[in-house]
Amino acid sequence: MSLRILIVEDEILIAETIKLYLEEQDYQVLDICISYEEAVESFHRERPDLVILDIRLYGPKSGIDFANFLQEQSEKTAFIYLTSQHDRRIFDLALETTPYGYLAKPIQKESLWTTVETAYRLFHEGSPPTITFTLFDGQKKHKVNEREIVCVKSEHVYSNVQLIDGRQIVTRKPLSQFLQQIQSKLLFRCHRSFIINTLYVNDWDNNSVTMVNGEIVPVSRSKRDILGKMLGGLE
What we know:
single chain, alpha/beta, 7 helices
């Protein structure tokens, strides 16, 4: 069954590009809305399977307001945030709505396809509550949500945790211990020196993946098949 998708984005050129990319994969784009009010009206009329939602919208209400509206409905709908926002306060508000993924602008079609498929699969598998944990950088403790992590890079006995808002937290914890602590279905160790969040892969090939923050991460031969299934196939 082709997914029925609602796009809520106030930049029409970006919205039309997303629509074009989605239709290449035979997804059905129901509507493009630029404001909260349009999105609510379209949602009631179309009842989409999934919503791609910009945090910033035209008018006084934001994408976060619309996400809260979706959460209040008796029948839940998966949604993905589309944003170029790097404001920590806004990002924290967005996290509280428990989205099923994030897409960073500018949009890459492969990342869009992967994020849509992953989000819808997690939604229908009954994704467990979002995991939150504490990282200590030697001076202070940081409360981190699993969906904030883009990737984790090994630096000898340390782990460099790269977050979606651009921050990096270096903690004295090897990668193996890091994964054991978190137990997240979103995080995958694709190389002895890297853990990635599969929600934030922009593009990939047999040898590496490029994350939304520009980090190019190598993929071990032994991990290719598993990662390929998670991302929809490595060529």
